[in-house]
Amino acid sequence: MDSTPSPSSSSAFDLVSRALGRYIPEGGAAAAEPRGDRTTRRQAPDNPAAGGQEQILGAVNLDQDLIITRCNLEAPVFAGLDVAAGRPFVDLLPRGDVPTVTRRLRQVVESGEAHVARIQRLRRGDGSELVVSMSILPSAAPEGGLTVSLIAMARRLHLYAAETAIGTSLDIGETAQSLAESLLAWGDVAAVDLDFAVWTGEGVSGRAHGRIRLRRAALVPDRVWPEGYTTPGDDLPGDASRLLAQAVLRDDAPQTIVIPDGEAVERVFGSPRVARALVPADLSAGVVCIPLVLDSAPPVVLGVAEVWRRADCPFRDSELFDLQELVARTAHHVDLARQHQREHTQVLALQRRLLPRAGGDTIEIASVYQPATPDSAGVGGDWVNSFPLPDGRTALVVGDVVGHGLGAAATMGQLSVEARALLSAGLAPDQVLEHLDETVTVLDDAESGLAAGYSALGSTCCIALYDPVGHHVTLSSAGHLPPILVSPDGRAGPLAIRPHPGLGAEFALREPFDVYTVGVPPGSVLALYTDGLVEDPALSIDEGMGRLADAVAAVHPWDTLQRAARHVVSTLAPAPQRDDVTLLLARMIGYRKGDTATWRLAARDDAPARAREQVSALLRQWRTRDATRHDATLLVSELVTNAVRYATGPITVRLIRAGHGLLCEVGDTGNGRPRLRRSDLLDDGGRGLSIVHRLTTRWGVRWTDTGKVVWAEVAR
Predict the structure, then answer these.
(1) With 0-12 CB in 10 A as exposed, 13-18 as middle and 19+ as buried, what is 540?
(2) How many helices (H) and strands (E) would you count in the chain?
(3) Burial category of 562 from C-beta neighbours within 10 Å (exposed 0-12, middle 13-18, buried 19 and up)
(4) Beta partners for 214?
(5) What are the backbone dihedrals phi and psi of residue 24, each rounded to the nearest 5 degrees, phi first?
(6) Would you place residue 411 in the very low, low, confident or very high pLDDT band (cuts 50, 70, 90)?
(7) Calpha distance 543→532 (Å, rounded)
(8) How far apart are CA 13 and CA 138, in angstroms?
(9) ∠ CA(234), CA(240), CA(243), 5° rounding?
(10) Strand (E) or helix (H) holding 168
(11) How much is the average pLDDT of 703-709?
């Protein structure tokens, strides 16, 4: 076979060079020759037709080690790029782009497949940058290596690419950074200063004079700046903020201003302190200040974009038009990021208010909430809560509302408050879920107004009630992932819970919510969480829960629970992530055996007397104050009398010595709810609950599978 290469097998570099209309001598000698001082930006006429067709195409040849061997970048647009033969190609790249571009170059070397049309920045020798469309082509054998084709971004193409890049993030800082990076194509330094209200996501309107506050949101390139210069995250000095605002708001109309040289800069800014804060190097630079204007009536200035350039390279009229067009076309992206920041902040504040504050004497609680990254779809509807119930138990609740943003936040807040109210009223977990299920269905009604344009159908929730006396947890789940239980001996795993549809399921799919009772000896740790913590595209959900079980099982009994919770989250879901992450850890402590006592009495007429005798003897053993002993004995007597009178079956009396109070419980098989009412002097009934109400700090009723329990607390 004839191995002579055909014309079609010419190297990619030669093909690109032919398109340029010239060849570079073999060996790179021409490329290595000095081409004069190229650090000065060449001036092109404002009218391209006057200077003929502008050349924007160039090529660089690389060997297997990514070293430049030949180049054809003689067009004026590439002036300032140091592309001498023998230098690594990555020297042309901004520092942050080196790993990504190097990986792309080596992929093309190894695979032989071209990588086409990557938008890339190249560093000039003076620190400024050139935006190009870069294609990486494999060179034909036996030459090997690569050919990098560079197309300098023409005006329209650059404006389009810049607007596209600026609109890809909903984070206001990243949006401002993208705008500054795009503006750098016209200068040596670019900065974006935003109204502080825009930076924080607040509403924007006309700002009164004397109350202007600008914050630097972005600055490029990344370099060491002189002391006193304003860098991202810093507020501009008050004088500087006022000067910039007054400059771009002449005659109450936003206008672009140009300060051509150092003398004019010094004259405008006046104060040396202001000059140090705003001028990037020395006073020899000129600047153009373009207001970011929200198109409204009247127009609202969101901030100021500044492009600095050496005074010997003044801005042309065509460049000013381009700068104004780019800023005008992207100002709405800044406002969208502001609105997202505001919503993100509001939802985050609501979710943090729902986080548990602390545990108690019988349980230790720790929680971590890690919101999704700001440029995701928005903060989600994950919520977690824990609170002591009046009867001495502790409620642990976790939920995940469908969707993101304010709609999900409104539903999340409503479900959380409703769950707390129902649990505090004594309802069982399955009964609470039934009410939440109905609430989600009602909220999904398009005519309700609250949920217009938003549906919470399919939201999930898990409720667990910890009994510190019986050392067990009663729980129900609506479509939520099962809790992880770690026993004192270190065994860990998810609880065996039958899957159930989420809240608001279709009527045909609705089933009774199952209730589970699980023993949790002192020292057990229960983990409730949302799916963001265990979901991983590379793992099944069971594997994710297994990883969580292993991480929680590694928590030492002496470890601070809050620190352990943070460690678990950082291990399984390092930021940033696309979904909210929520974790609630509860370490069970319970009451000591000597702090509780339980009696079972037959529902007979002598039950109150027997209860008084046993309670009085126990309180003497506990060395309770006489007044407390008298009140508690009378209280239990009235509750037992009420149980004998209105209920059947055995009566259970339980006393709990808790903190600064004494908790008295009387359970029976009745299902009627005792109600406090105003009684007349001649009424036979109703006096017992009045006595209970006067003797206690609080009292209530909770329902059980066999009846009810009336509880009351007496101060010790």
Answers:
(1) exposed
(2) 17, 27
(3) middle
(4) 195
(5) -100, 130
(6) confident
(7) 14
(8) 9
(9) 145
(10) none
(11) 83
Residues facing residue 388 across a β-bridge = 394
pTM attached to this predicted model: 0.57
Query: Longest C-alpha distance within the chain, in Å?
Result: 123
Q: Can you give the pLDDT at residue 165?
A: 67
Comparing CA positions, the residue from 146, 145, 244 lying closest to residue 194 is 244
What sign does the CA torsion over 159, 161, 163, 165 have?
negative
Cβ atoms within 10 Å, residue 100:
12
Q: In what order do the strands lie in the sheet with 492-494?
A: 363-370, 581-588, 525-529, 484-486, 492-494
Give the model's pLDDT for residue 46: 42
The one-letter amino acid at 628: T
Which two structure tokens, joined as six digits, stand for 144? 């090997």
Of the candidates 392, 510, 515, 422, the residue with the CA atom closest to the CA atom of residue 464: 515
List the structure tokens of 114. 């071209």
The H-or-E segment that residue 9 falls in is none
Question: How far, CA to CA in Å, does 305 sit from each of 123, 296, 330?
Answer: 22, 19, 11
- Pairwise CA distance, residues 529 & 552, whole Å: 12
The burial of 214, by beta-carbon neighbours within 10 Å (0-12 exposed, 13-18 middle, 19 or more buried), is given as buried
Whether the CA torsion 426, 427, 433, 437 is positive or negative: it is negative
Contacts of 75 (CB under 8 A, 6+ apart): 54, 55, 56, 57, 58, 152
- Residue 493: both structure tokens together: 């795993």
- Please check whether residue 225 is in contact with residue 282, taking contact to mean a CB–CB distance below 8 angstroms: no
CA distance linking residue 648 with residue 656, whole number of Å: 24
Range list of β-strands (E), 523-607: 525-529, 581-588, 596-601
Given the structure tokens 């045909």, which residue do they identify? Answer: 508
Task: Give me the residues paired with residue 528 across strands.
Answer: 584
Q: In angstroms, rounded to a whole number, what is the distance separating the alpha carbons of residues 275 and 409?
A: 45
Instruction: Please give the span between the terminal C-alpha atoms of the chain, in angstroms, as a whole number.
Output: 105
Q: Which one, of 219, 179, 215, lies nearest residue 197 by Cα?
A: 215
What tokens does 435 get?
């009410």
Strands in 343-408 per DSSP E:
363-370, 380-388, 394-404
Burial environment of residue 11 by CB neighbours within 10 A (0 to 12, 13 to 18, 19 or more): buried
In the numeric block, the tokens 């609705």 are attached to 510
Chain mean position to CA 520: 33
Alpha carbons 555 and 436: distance in angstroms, whole number: 33
Q: Determine contact, residues 392/660, Cβ cutoff 8 Å.
A: no
**Inter-CA distances, 122 with 153, 184, 223, Å:** 12, 11, 16
Size of the chain, expressed as the number of residues it contains? 716
Other C-beta atoms closer than 10 Å to the C-beta of 36 total 8
Contact 215, 193 (CB under 8 A): yes
**Whether pLDDT at 713 is above 50:** yes
pLDDT tens, 201-227?
A: 676 655 444 456 788 888 988 778 888
∠ at Cα 209 (208, 210), nearest 5°?
Answer: 115
R_g of the chain, CA atoms, integer Å: 36
Residue 406 has pLDDT above 50, yes or no: yes
Measure the CA–CA gap between 249 and 241, rounded to whole angstroms.
12
- Helix H segments across 454-508? none
Cα 524 to Cα 176, 331, 396, 609, distances in angstroms: 49, 55, 15, 39
Residue in the structure block whose two tokens are 């023409």:
154
Axis-axis angle for helices 172-183, 155-166 (nearest 10): 170
Q: Which residues pair with 220 in a beta bridge?
A: 190
What's phi and psi for 292, nearest 5 deg?
-90, 105
Which tokens sit at 445? Answer: 């009604």
What is the spatial distance between Cα 611 and Cα 589, in angstroms, rounded to a whole number? 29
